[in-house]
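Please complete every field before forwarding. Incomplete forms are returned to the sender.

SECTION A: IDENTIFIERS
Entry label: holo-481
Bound molecule: flavin-adenine dinucleotide
Molecule representation: SMILES string

SECTION B: INPUTS
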Amino acid sequence: MTELSCEVLIIGSGPGGATTAALLAEAGRDVLIVEEGPDLTIDSAPSYSMAELDQKYRNGGLNTSFGRTPVTYIEGRCVGGASEINAALYHRPHEGTLEDWRREYQIADFGLQALIPEFQQIEREMSVSRRADGLSPSSQTLIQGADKLGWKHAEIERFWKYEGAPAGQIDRGRRQSMTETLIPRARAAGARLVPDTRVLRLVMNGPRAVEAHAQGPDRKRVRIRFEQLVLAAGAVQTPVLLRRSGIRRNIGDALRLHPMMRVAARFDHRVNDPAFGVPVQQVEQFKPALTLGCSHSSPPHIALWLGRQVPERQRIMAEWQNVAVFYVAVQGEGRGTVRALPGLGEPLVRYENTDRDHRLLGEGLHHLGRLLFEAGALQIMSPVDGEAPINTPTGLPRLLDLPHKGIAVSTIHLFSSLPMGEDRERCAVDSYGRLHSYENVRVHDASILPTSPGVNPQGTIMAIVRRNTRQMLAGGGRLRS
Ligand SMILES: Cc1cc2nc3c(=O)[nH]c(=O)nc-3n(C[C@H](O)[C@H](O)[C@H](O)COP(=O)(O)OP(=O)(O)OC[C@H]3O[C@@H](n4cnc5c(N)ncnc54)[C@H](O)[C@@H]3O)c2cc1C
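SECTION C: PREDICTED COMPLEX
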C-alpha cells in the first residue's frame, strides 16, 4: 500500500482539475492531483488515430447511454482529460443562459459581468485565437451555403497557439490543451501529479471527507489523506465516485448533454483537406438551440458516417477528398441519470431526449441539408439506418420525421450531473461548488453547470472553476493558512 498526504487533493486533471491545481499551487498550497489515465504529451499519437483512441479515450471512445434513443458519448482518460482530444473550440456562453442559471438555480454573485475577468484571463493565458492558416475547404463550403441562404455564420476561436513556422512551411499552430498549459504551470509551482491511478472510493467521517482509496499501476493500493478535496473527474465519473462512496442526494440525477447527429455529403470537387484538422466554422443563425458545423473528416470518420446503407461505399471512399462530414448539435433539454452499477461501480447512464430535442435534431439536419445543396452537394448520406442517400433538396423533408431507433445520436459535451446553486431541492453543490452538507468537498468540473450551455463548454467550465477556486483561496474553502 502506498500512503500519500496533501493539503488539497484534486481528483482528475481535465480543464476543471488543471485550472484548480494551477491557481492553488501558485498561491502556495500543497496540491496533489490524482489522474486515472496516463501522462502523455499532446503529440504522443496523431489526432483521431487508433493509437490515440487506445491511449487517451475512456473505453476506446465506446460508451453509451440507455434510453429510447441510445446516445453514445466520449470521455477523455489521460492527464489533461478531454482537452487532450478535443477540437479546442472556445466560446463565452450566452448572457441569457447565465442569467437563467442565476435566477432558476439561485446562484450567488453570478452572471456574465461577474465572469468577464475570468474569461479575459483564460483568453490571454490559453492563447484563444482565430486560425492563422486559413479556412479549410469544408469551412468554406459551410460559408458558401450559409451565405446563399442569408444565415449568420462565424469562425469559432480556439485554444491555439501560433509561434511561426520555418520558412516555406505553413504554421498550423499547436492546441493549448492542459498538458501544454495549466498542468506544467501547476507542476512548476510545486503541485504533485500521480497518473495511472484511479480513485475508487472516498471515506467520510460525518460531514468531512478524510481519505481517498485508489488503485495505481499493477493494481497497487493507494491511500491518500487530505484536508480539502476537489472532485474534477468529469460529468459522469464525479457522480459515480460520490455514489460509490455512499453520497447520493441530488448526485447524478440531472445529467444534460448536447445531442449531436452527423451527415456525410459528397461534392464534385475537393471539400476535404485533413491538414486543417477540425474545421472551425459554425452557423450562428439558430444558436443557442441549434448549432450546425463541420466535423473532422478523415477517411475512417467518413466511412463511419456513410453508414451501412450506401451500396456504392467503395466508390465514394475512393473519392474521399470530395466528401466531408457535418454536424447538428442541440442544446438538449432532455435529462439523464448517472448511477454506479452494483458490484462493479462502473457508470450506468440513462438519458432521454425530449420530443423537442428529437424534433430539433430533425430540423437541424433539414437546415444542414438545405445549406449543403446550396453549396453544391451532389448527395447527402441519410443518417437513418437502411435509408438511401438524398440526391436532391426534394428528399430533405424526410429528415424532419426522424425515427427514434436506427439513428446515430452521440455527444462529446456532458454536464449538469451535480448542478450548482442554493436551491437545495435540486442542487448538489452551492453557488461556489461546495458539496451541500459537507465541509471540505468541492466539485470543479463540467458536472456543476446547471443545464446545457448551448455552446462548446470548456471555456465556461474553466471560467466558473477559476471563480470558485479564487473564492476558495479567499477563505471560503477554509484552507489551512
Ligand atoms: C472528442 C471531444 C471533443 C470536444 N471538443 C470540444 C471543443 O472543441 N470545445 C469545448 O469547449 N469542449 C469540447 N469538448 C468538451 C470538453 O473537452 C469537456 O467539456 C471538458 O474537457 C470537461 O472538463 P472536465 O474537467 O469536467 O472533465 P474531463 O476533461 O472529462 O477530465 C476528467 C478527468 O478525470 C479523470 N478521472 C475520472 N475518474 C477518475 C477517478 N476515479 N480517479 C482519477 N481520475 C479520474 C479522467 O481520466 C479525466 O482525465 C470535447 C470533448 C470531447 C470528448
